[in-house]
Amino acid sequence: MIETPSNPHSWFEWIQLIATICVPVVIGIFTIIQNQSQSEQQRNNLKIAAENRLKDIEIADRNREKDRWLADDQQKENILIDYQNFLANLLEKHGMTLNGTSTARLIARFRTLIALDQLNSARRSFLIRSLYEAQLISFQTVQTNNVVTEFESFDTLRSIVDLSSANLSGLSLGINEDDNDECPRECIPGVGIDALVLSQTQLTNAFFRKMNFQGALFVKSIMDNADFRCSYLNGTNGGLTFASSLLIHAKFRKTCALDVSFQSVNLDKAQMHGMICKHCIFRDAQINHADLDDVEFYREDENNDTFHDKYENINFTETSLIGAKFDHLSLRGTLFIGANLSRICIINCVLSRDSVQFAAATFEKSTLINATIQNSSFDYVHFIDSNLSGAKIFMSNFTHASMKNIDLTGATLEMCNFNDANLAGCIMTNANINLSYFVGSDLTGCQGITDVQLAQAKSIAGAILPNGTKISST
Ligand SMILES: *[C@@H]1O[C@H](CO)[C@@H](O)[C@H](O)[C@H]1NC(C)=O
Ligand SMILES: *[C@@H]1O[C@H](CO)[C@@H](O)[C@H](O)[C@H]1NC(C)=O
Ligand SMILES: *[C@@H]1O[C@H](CO)[C@@H](O)[C@H](O)[C@H]1NC(C)=O
Ligand SMILES: *[C@@H]1O[C@H](CO)[C@@H](O)[C@H](O)[C@H]1NC(C)=O
Ligand SMILES: *[C@@H]1O[C@H](CO)[C@@H](O)[C@H](O)[C@H]1NC(C)=O
Ligand SMILES: *[C@@H]1O[C@H](CO)[C@@H](O)[C@H](O)[C@H]1NC(C)=O
Ligand SMILES: *[C@@H]1O[C@H](CO)[C@@H](O)[C@H](O)[C@H]1NC(C)=O
Ligand SMILES: *[C@@H]1O[C@H](CO)[C@@H](O)[C@H](O)[C@H]1NC(C)=O
Ligand SMILES: *[C@@H]1O[C@H](CO)[C@@H](O)[C@H](O)[C@H]1NC(C)=O
Ligand SMILES: *[C@@H]1O[C@H](CO)[C@@H](O)[C@H](O)[C@H]1NC(C)=O
Ligand SMILES: *[C@@H]1O[C@H](CO)[C@@H](O)[C@H](O)[C@H]1NC(C)=O
Ligand SMILES: *[C@@H]1O[C@H](CO)[C@@H](O)[C@H](O)[C@H]1NC(C)=O
């Protein structure tokens, strides 16, 4: 049953009363809300207007910038077109080798330098590429019968259009611009660039990754940060040289080089991890603070055991050469200071002094833990505070070597010659000195040498034993 209010009249009056009171209140509230939302609306409108103005300005700016860029780009395009027309006329008039008059080459050189100066790096690269294809910046291949020609002979070599002093920063001749620095371990040459001459140019940040250079001259160039990763450098017939160039921070990771000269270069902080270099010259190079882990530097010359590649007077301060392989190199006068040579492999190398030109190599504060040394000569070499623990050394000479305080813990020193070497204060715990000579060598204060060990040596005549006893020399 529906319940009806007991007094319908008073109920209705109540409603009326409440409504009467409420209407102004509701209107008031509505007005306030209305005002509020209106001012919010206004504010929003103002904000949108301001934003639109800003956007307009931005768009205008962007358009102006785009216009400027387009104008600039068009200007550069015109410079390139003008230059190409100029060159075409010049070549037509004076022949492809510009030998019509003596001034033709000079004019070409200066017009080229001016154009290069005004272009951006993409168009510069295009210009260089077209000069290369017209054979105006190459050198004639000279047959040198497999001998790496030293840089003196290339120093004055000029191409038809001489680019020396040009700023070619950021030059890119690479086709493959991707950042993938993986490359096959084997040396597989890609698309070739032959006999290019870029001597005495600025090539900072140049990009030559995965390129195949068959002869190239980079003499006295500024090549900091240049990228030769995975590239293939063959100087067998034409000659390929970086002599006297600055290659600070350059990247030669997994680069394969054959008959290449790096004489007197600066390769500080270079990344040369896994580089393979056959028949190269590194004489007088600065290679400090660099990464040369797992490099393979070697000469392959089956019929000539006495010939060594030129690696003399290199400065390897604080360089990492972990797992490197050196075979048939002359490392006379080379400095290994604070270098990490763990697991290095030195075979058929000479590090001793020669009477004419070079001092012996120096190892100072270097780590040669687990090194493999075979058939090499270290006569007169200094090992200052170096660690050769776990090294495997066979058939090598250390006569007159300075090896004070050297750590030879667990090392194998078989069939070696330590005659007149200074080994005072060495550590020879568990070292194997089977069939080695210690004639006249100084073992004063050496630790860990037992009579059983000494008995395995081929000869200790004239040596000073750890307790100071001198063996008679006969
Ligand atoms: C320029 O060189 C070409 C090819 O070497 C030669 O045939 C020509 O006679 C030379 N011209 C002059 C003017 O020397
Ligand atoms: C060479 O060009 C690069 C960029 O194109 C520039 O940063 C550098 O300063 C220039 N070097 C010289 C010596 O003018
Ligand atoms: C290097 O270049 C020479 C001469 O151009 C060529 O005969 C030789 O096959 C090349 N070597 C390799 C491994 O590509
Ligand atoms: C080894 O090669 C060097 C340089 O090519 C040469 O001077 C020397 O006579 C050669 N020695 C032998 C034994 O062939
Ligand atoms: C070798 O390089 C180090 C580090 O750059 C330098 O301090 C030292 O003077 C250099 N020594 C020689 C002989 O070049
Ligand atoms: C040298 O390299 C080895 C092998 O990577 C490493 O264990 C060792 O700590 C390094 N030594 C120094 C002195 O850097
Ligand atoms: C040296 O060789 C020993 C034994 O093979 C190994 O335990 C150690 O880790 C190696 N050390 C380095 C730095 O290669
Ligand atoms: C060591 O050198 C000699 C001559 O210098 C050579 O006949 C021999 O094959 C070399 N041994 C090794 C293991 O390279
Ligand atoms: C070591 O010296 C002996 C005698 O001087 C010499 O016959 C031999 O060839 C030398 N070996 C090496 C690897 O230098
Ligand atoms: C040489 O290296 C070994 C292995 O890392 C280490 O145990 C030893 O203390 C080092 N010797 C010296 C003299 O620092
Ligand atoms: C020393 O070398 C000889 C000849 O190579 C070998 O017969 C002998 O077993 C070696 N002795 C030790 C203790 O290694
Ligand atoms: C010095 O050491 C050797 C070999 O261990 C030994 O034969 C000799 O008696 C020692 N001499 C002295 C004075 O202790």
TrEMBL record:
What organism does the record attribute this protein to?
Rotaria magnacalcarata
Q: Does the keyword Membrane apply?
A: yes
Query: Any stretches that span the bilayer, and where are they?
Result: 14-33
Superkingdom per UniProt: Eukaryota
UniProt signal peptide: none
What Pfam families does this protein map onto?
Answer: Pentapeptide
Stated name of the protein: Pentapeptide repeat-containing protein
Alphabetically ordered keywords of this record: Membrane, Transmembrane, Transmembrane helix
